Structures are given as structure tokens and as C-alpha cells.
């Protein structure tokens, strides 16, 4: 019914060592009855891989996710070499597209449990196999929070999966360790797998509806009501450990009422990197990568700060006021996560990094004087450290005045 060239030759990316991959589409044959040949031409041998595929199964397979693509959608070039006229319109596709996988959150959580079981049994091989499976599942879940991307090969899928711009801190290194590319002990492997999952959960909370569609309402509810976080904490506790162990899944203690905790902010746009921001003498001119055109419009306090007024993007409700320097504004604009400068601790903090009450930035506007920014966010949970939705919950008495002409 048809013969197609696929792989690196179809992408025009072949090297002297590349295989020649050919799909022969026939009626009624098994899906992947493969035959390999070593063809000689001008004294050089070339590996020719031929897959005889049932044409109807082949067309159906295009509507399914590719098992090698880390859950990402595929757009792989192909070249039609020959087709039966009655099938030409259906198989003459210059690009073979396959959809993204659904967000496989349930499998991700279950696989972390397998890593935990192997850790408790001191089963190095089992831990490494489960951690590799976990790393292959993680991008399918993080895809909910990331810009769309299409991949053309297994190599490009691997690169795209490692470079997702919205990802947990340390994501790239943890992925490489779980996949076995970075060495590590069972303990280090467990820590990497746990960080991947615990860091992914808060990033996908705004997409609970998509999770419900793929995995059912109970898992989506657990994502929102904290059961999933508690389950991760339970997995982190080795067998025999007391139940009073920390309930914080990310290994950072939760803030108590009246207290702020800070963590390092991700260095955008490189996934998982961190920027150290040492405090120079005098408290000003911290290093920043803010666009110079934006920086030129800011009117800062002597400490190099501008006020950030934060509101809910759809209702206009004012949630809180914080401070930003140039670098905090840069991170807010480039990561989509509200990032501020703590005047008391002299360090950056990402809203929600310890509490789970994240702010996903929808827009940022500069006021006419350049000394304040209006940050419109999608607020998850409470904006105030006291647990209130807004910091402005204390009403003050106001005398009513009469209007006189």
C-alpha cells in the first residue's frame, strides 16, 4: 500500500553511520514484523531496517502517543517513496504527528512508591529501574504547566524533556540522576526522585481539571486538599520511622504563623539553576539580568526596591504588597512565578515555595512614576501568611462625610 522513509534520513540529519529506516505498509501483516539488512554500496555497508506494518494499524498508531517521546507531542518528517493510489491521500504525510501523552500523575506517584520500597529493601537495581521509569513519566505531568513543544526524534525529546522552562529547582540534575546518567547512591537516587515529584505537585495544582480528566476526580481532589502532599511525606519516611516525622514534602519546614521562610529562586530560563545574589556593601546594586530598557524606567528606594502591589487577575482583589529589586522583577517576568526581595532576610523568595500557596503571574504593569508595579496573578490558596486570602482583612473605622456644594 505504501513505502515511507523515516528517521534521520527523512529529517535530512543523517550521518555516515545512520541507519536507513523504511516502513512498508501492507494489508493484514503484523504491526512490526522487522527485517534488517546490511546493504553494500561502493564498498560501504549500510544498515537498512525494514518494518512491515499493517496500514490500518499504522494509521491508527498516529493517533496515539509515542512511547519514546517522554509524553511530548511528536512531529517527525517522513518521505513517501511509493503509494498505492487508493491509499495515497491517507499516507502521503510530509510530517507524521502523534499526540502528547496524558498527564500520568497517578503512575508518577505509584512509581515513587516503588522507589521508596526499593530504598527500604536496599535494592539498588530495583531503585534504579523505578527511578528511570519515574523520570520518563515526569515530563508528561509537567507538560501541563509548560509552553507547547513538539519533538522530531528520541534525542530531541530527551533534550526537550530536560529543558522544560517550568520545572522544580534542580530538575535537570535530578532527571539525569534518575535516568542513570549521573552516578549516585540509593539514598541520592531516592532524594532526586522525591524532589522531582514533590516539586512537580505545586506546579500543576492550577491544572487540577486536566488531572481529573485524565486520572479521575479523586486524584485531582487530593492534589488540591493536601492529601497528595501528605502521601509524599509518608513515602519519605523509611519503614519504622515515627509518624511524627516532618509533614513537609519538599524538605523545607512550613512557615509558622507570623513567620516568612525563603528559598532560592530558580534562575530563568535555565531549568533548576540558582542565582546567588550576595549583598554588596550599602545594600544596593545587586546583580541583575533585567532588560535595561525596563530597568531605566524604575525609580527605586535607597535600598534599590520598588513596591509590588499584587492582585487577583480576574476579580481585581488586592492580595498583598511586597518589594522587588531589579532581579526579582526579572525572575517574575521570565519564570511566571511571583518573586520578591525580603528586606529582613536580604534574599529572594518565591511566593508559595514553602507554603504551596503559589502565585502564577498573568501580567505585570509599571505605574506612571516607575516606583511601583502591579502584579496580576492567579493566587493558589491564601496570599497572607496568617492564612487569610488577602493581607487586607482588618477593617478600620471610617467617619462618613457629607458632601456639600
UniProtKB/TrEMBL annotation:
It comes from the Bacteria. It holds the Pfam family Ant-IIb_sub-bd. InterPro entries: Ant(4')-IIb_substrate-bd (IPR040517), NT_sf (IPR043519), PRA-CH (IPR026660), PRib_AMP_CycHydrolase_dom (IPR002496), PRib_AMP_CycHydrolase_sf (IPR038019). GO terms for biological process: L-histidine biosynthetic process. Its EC number is 3.5.4.19. Signal peptide: none annotated. Keywords: Amino-acid biosynthesis, Cytoplasm, Histidine biosynthesis, Hydrolase, Magnesium, Metal-binding, Zinc. It catalyses: 1-(5-phospho-beta-D-ribosyl)-ATP + H2O = 1-(5-phospho-beta-D-ribosyl)-5'-AMP + diphosphate + H(+); 1-(5-phospho-beta-D-ribosyl)-5'-AMP + H2O = 1-(5-phospho-beta-D-ribosyl)-5-[(5-phospho-beta-D-ribosylamino)methylideneamino]imidazole-4-carboxamide. Belongs to the PRA-CH family. In the N-terminal section; belongs to the PRA-CH family. NCBIfam families: PRK00051.1. PANTHER family: HISTIDINE BIOSYNTHESIS BIFUNCTIONAL PROTEIN, PHOSPHORIBOSYL-AMP CYCLOHYDROLASE. This is Phosphoribosyl-AMP cyclohydrolase. It comes from Micromonospora sonchi. The gene is hisI.
